[in-house]
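pasting input
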Amino acid sequence: MTSTTLPASSLATPAQIPAAGSADFTPRYWLFSLPAVLIIAGVIVFPWLFTLYMSSQDWKIGGGPEFVGLQNFAELFRDARFIESMGHTFYFTVLAVVLPILFGTAAALVFHREFPFRGLLRTIFVMPMMATPVAVALVWTMMFHPQLGVLNYLLSLVGIGPQAWVYSPNTVIPTLILVEVWHWTPLVMLIVLGGLAGLPREPYESALIDGANAWHMFRHITLPLVWPFIMVAIVIRTIDALKAFDTIFVITQGGPGTASETLNIFLYLQAFQFYKIGYASAVVVIFFVIIIMLSLLLLYARQKSKWNA
Amino acid sequence: MTDILKPTRRGLLRGAAALGATGAIASPLVLREARAQAAFNWKRFSGQSIDVLLVKNPRSDLMQAAEKEFTELTGIKVSAEQVPEQQQRQKAVIEFASGKPSFDVSGISLHVQKRMAAKGKWFEDLRPYIADASLTAPDFDFADFGAGPVAYARQADGALDTIPFFVDYWMVYYNKELFDAKGVAYPKTMEEMATVAAKLHDPAKGIAGFVSRGLKNANVPVWASLVLGQGIETTSPDGKLLTDTPEAIWAGELYKKLNKESGPVGQVGFNWNECQTTFMQGRAAMWLDGIGFATPLEDPSKSRIVGKVGYGVTPPGPKAHHAGMFADGMGISRGSQKKQAAWLYLQFMTNKANQISMLKAGAGAPGRASAYLDKETIAQSKFGAQYFECLLNSAKIARAALPQIVPVTEFRDVFGVALTNAIGGADVAAELKKATEAFAPVLVKSEQG
């Protein structure tokens, strides 16, 4: 066996080795980070700066841009449809987060127990999540048809008259939530189920010895322990619900009237139907600020919910 | 019996005489055609290839099917792309705005993009091409295109930047069986449509007296078609909005009455496809929409009312009798490097034979007048004589229903919301006034920019 000894000059002296937790910012390492910096600058920073620039322009496709400063933002806050679409977005988001979280958690608790055909039923339960949103939306559109849809047919079998579903301004958002719940409850179930699978048995055994009932165990052991997982589901669902577009666009296109026009639909109309690029960019900037604020809030809540927090 | 394998001198003479006589009779027509075709060189751009942007619909399917024949005739290769209507419009706007569109030929909806195309200088003016005998086949016969469609395609400065190959007239589909069952006659006026619809409306049996588009944006052509009955359009010839005038309000009230009192549940969210399905399943007595949606109604695999569909011309309004007109045109991109080859493509795809094919396939109403005179096509069609009668009579009274302005989509959106609100019970006059006030600055700005 041979041994190799490095010359003393090639070894770093303690003074040259960066201390643990500190970074070396000397220029010789910059080259390694350059590809990542370029990519981030190209695909994230530049589009954002350009969007900011466009939001300060009166710019319609086919014409030239004209600097208008903050005028687009001022107009947006005077635009009743923009304000209305913000309201719809929050209404939709709250329902599209809360209901799947409740049903998904309940489903996870059910599927966490042992019972015959559990695997098969769990597979069936998660199937909606695998479907393409546009395909899902088209199928639901047919089902919602007031005259020919299967939903009203089923209601007629139990003596209930035809409902307007997405064809009424009063029921359109709750009906769209029905699709969201059907589509995304399985995702929440899977996340929470993952949390439940990792729970320790000891607290439950102690609780049983102390005479706790099922509700007490759920309220004081299961829920606190699984809460970090529920928070992850809430973050994912909130981001998903805020950016929901495909399902709403395919089923209602924001209608009837403007009853289901969310910020995304409003933005799409301004950018790709009316070709008002400057105005649409201002919507994007405002939407971005809203998302950042909500994300920070949720991340803070998630951090607080950690077991070791 | 004469043995043809052993010809006699007399037999040969008889044959020669007969051939000579036939030739003498047929020669002017044959020679004229032959000379004309011989003079026109379809192959002069052989070897070039062109890109075409089409809207996804049965007419584009027919064009793509005819590409092989076109390539055999001209030696020009075609790469055509079909894109769904909304996306095709967006693609056209963005690519034309770039100044270097990726296509040489594009279809457009004249009722949406006509002014936008003129303002953005999207297309070549086709008049010099039509006038150039070396570029236009003698049998193209541009004069054969209907006066209405041609006027629709022509820009304000007289330029003809598209060939109007497809026209859609608004008319009333009606269920003859439902009319007969209640002994009701087809309405003679627009106002009578509401009376007839009320008589036929039977919610207990799931029958609506009337169905039309209620969905925002899609509903504007219905109202605009009713506005034509007052002898006006939604804008004046000098581009002023007439959308809150008493005439427009009258049309809005009629629209509201028809839909609110005699419409099916949920009509406020109906686009043409929901209306079509409802009518096709025998759940509506009348449907006001474009004649281009007729094909599935006579298809036994899709429709429950095959053979029971009546095709009625839009009834007259209080002051005028018009059928709302919508049309599609095809033009040559101004930025194209292969304009002549593209012109050959346009000529071929809109020639008489291909326009007849469109009618034969039930793919819509062609822009050429001669197509409607083709008795063989009419005799073989699955549509009865009433359909063609309606088509021809609608053509005679056709008038553009949507305003010829740049922001048509925004117009449809703003007034679409007003109409949807009206069905929901809102005051028509107040809604139209509000929409007019909201849209007026948009229109002014579009004319300035």
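fyi Chain A has two domains: 42-78+276-309, 96-262.
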